[in-house]
Design goal:
Layout: H1 2-14, E1 33-38, E2 43-46, H2 48-54, H3 58-61, H4 72-86, E3 91-98, E4 104-114, E5 122-128, H5 133-145, H6 151-162, E6 169-175, H7 176-179, E7 193-202, H8 210-213, E8 219-222, H9 227-234, E9 238-241, H10 259-263, E10 266-274, E11 277-286, H11 293-330, E12 342-348, E13 358-364, E14 370-377, H12 382-400, H13 405-418, E15 425-433, E16 438-444, E17 450-452, E18 458-460, E19 478-482, E20 488-492, H14 494-497, H15 504-517, H16 522-533, E21 541-547
Antiparallel strand pairs: 1-2, 1-5, 3-4, 4-5, 6-7, 6-11, 7-8, 9-10, 10-11, 12-21, 13-14, 14-15, 15-16, 16-19, 17-18, 17-20, 20-21
Length: 554
């Protein structure tokens, strides 16, 4: 039974992934005590730590009802806890314990069923001093502020954690140069601080709505010795009274122009500092009572956690904007479909990436011909995109030079072998000639094209597979098709037809069925097929549909 108690203590100690002494504000787990009870609430084992915390020695409590150790007002709660344990659930709460000398203290208890090799069943009890309110505030802040990488949502969570537990009103500001994508380096250089309000909130009963009085997105210029400017300049909390309230609200403010200053008496500006730089500040306000020195220190610790969350969100936002800009540069622009062709395209990166390894091109060639190229570099993310952009540029140039599909793949394979980093990719190239209603196709390890016919049937086009690009010297062969009117050729990447739960052959059957059943505009069909087949967004997804209309060139 002692061993079981030790295991309970160990589970408590390792919860959250940090040792007892790790991190400012962490609970001192040396005060944690464990003991066991029978299902009727009698103490069956007692540890030395339980004796120190609860003020009773083992000989005084073994065999006695645990309720005897509690204040009479807590015994009903214990009875409810025992009922919950009997039903097979755990229970946690704060009870008032009475020591042998009659002194009382609030203690956090956790009760859970304990599986024993030999009957009777037992209850494992973990007891510890309650976490102080301020410490619990910091613990909750640490959990909440890192739960999202969205800048506005992080600011909203800062307000939610702070109001009304610590302050009656809170507003979160970020320096304007950071909201536009600049880095923290540089500082304000002695100039007026320009800050944008990300979120604000007030406690219930404040008499006005924070969304109206302190709207998100409003930009403030904090000049001179205003509390916000001093907070940013000194990187230290600044206390001020309602007389300076106009510094944190618009002159018009809420109704009658009185603003937050009239409803609150004590204010605190706290810097949001991270990486040794100030990224913004919080304004906290109370209806009554000043912020004590201890509370100012607590607010500073709270702001440290808030600043880390905002900084992570800001870095992610900046990286996302960069990736989106790169993506826009890597993907082809809105293609101009050559005369005599109908082409629709759909591209989606993997769910956890903004850029990936898929690429496609739609190129106008000489003599009215059109080249369609679809490729898939191994992997996704920036590494795959680096390979992709080089191969795509090479394929574009080779197709524009008029090379046949099989020769284009041959030259592209040689190019892949010369890249500094290993480059492995699959590729398919199809050249359409509307004048003869023909199409020449070659592929390098890529999944085969699918041809949907006007009679609502479909088939896989038998094209020699070839080896993926970058695997060494090889040759590629092409096939020539004659396309009946309204026949649609589909080129795609494996993200469309393959997932962890669906092998590619089943996915190709699903693609064939979707193509055979599609009707209406080609782009609408392309988008609908992508949505229906792309199950889990595990990989980049590309689909190109091409058709030679009944009257080419019309």
């Amino acid at each position: 039974m002692v061993e079981s108690g030790i295991r309970v203590a160990q589970r408590f100690q390792t919860a959250g992934g940090m040792p007892a002494a790790a991190g400012r504000g962490a609970q001192d787990l040396s005060a944690v005590a464990t003991f066991t009870m029978s299902l009727d609430g009698r103490v069956s084992s007692w540890s030395a730590a339980a004796g120190r915390l609860l003020g009773h020695q083992a000989q005084q409590v073994l065999g006695r009802p645990a309720g005897d150790l509690l204040d009479p007002g807590s015994r009903g709660d214990l009875a409810g806890a025992l009922t919950a344990i009997t039903a097979g659930t755990t229970w946690a709460g704060v009870l008032t314990a009475r020591a042998a000398d009659g002194s009382g203290q609030h203690v956090s208890f956790r009760l859970e069923p304990l599986i024993c090799a030999d009957p009777p069943p037992q209850i494992a009890v973990t007891a510890s001093p309650p976490v102080p309110a301020g410490q619990q505030l910091l613990l909750d802040a640490g959990l909440r502020f890192g739960a999202t990488l969205d800048l506005t949502e992080t600011a909203r969570q800062i307000v939610d954690v702070t109001v009304p537990r610590f302050a009656d009103a809170c507003a979160v500001y970020l320096l304007e140069r950071l909201t536009s994508g600049s880095d923290l380096a540089g500082g304000e250089g002695g100039r007026a601080a320009v800050a944008r309000r990300l979120a604000s909130g007030t406690a219930p009963g404040a008499g006005w709505a924070a969304a109206q009085a302190l709207p998100a997105g409003e930009v403030l210029v904090l000049t001179g010795g205003t509390p916000g400017a001093r907070c940013v300049a000194t990187s230290s909390p600044v206390s001020f009274s309602g007389a300076d309230g106009a510094a944190v609200t618009r002159p018009a403010g809420p109704p009658n122009g009185a603003g937050i200053a009239r409803g609150h008496t004590s204010f605190l500006a706290v810097p949001l500092a991270t990486r040794d730089m100030v990224a913004g500040f919080m304004i906290l306000a109370r209806v009554a009572g000043p912020f004590s020195p201890h509370e100012i220190g607590l607010a500073d610790e709270l702001a440290e956690r808030a600043a880390v969350g905002l900084d992570n969100a800001q870095v992610f936002s900046r990286q996302r904007r960069t990736a989106e800009a790169v993506q826009r540069g890597l993907l082809p622009g809105e293609p101009t479909v050559p005369a005599g062709m109908e082409v629709a395209q759909s591209y989606l990166p993997a769910a956890d990436h903004i850029i990936g390894g898929d690429w496609y091109d739609i190129l106008r060639l000489s003599a009215g011909r059109t080249a369609l190229i679809v490729g898939d570099a191994m992997g996704h993310g920036p590494e795959a995109a680096t390979v992709m952009v080089q191969l795509r540029a090479g394929a574009h140039a080779l197709a524009d030079a008029g090379l046949k599909p099989e020769m284009l793949l041959h030259r592209l394979n040689k190019m892949a072998s010369t890249l500094k980093e290993p480059a492995f990719a699959t590729c398919v190239c199809a050249v359409f000639d509307p004048a003869t209603r023909s199409c020449v196709i070659a592929r390098a390890g890529h999944l085969p094209p699918v041809l949907a016919l006007p009679d609502h049937t479909s088939r896989v086009v038998d094209v020699p597979p070839g080896l993926p690009l970058g695997l060494g010297p090889t040759t590629f062969d092409a096939v020539r098709l004659t396309l009946p009117p309204q026949a649609t050729l589909a080129l795609y990447t494996d993200g469309l037809v393959e997932s962890r739960r669906r092998p590619f052959d089943e996915g190709i059957l699903a693609l064939r069925a979707a193509l055979a059943a599609s009707s209406g505009p080609l782009q609408a069909s392309c988008d609908a097929i992508t949505r229906s087949l792309r199950e889990y967004a595990e990989d980049d997804t590309t689909l190109i549909l091409a058709r030679i209309p009944d009257q080419p060139g019309a």
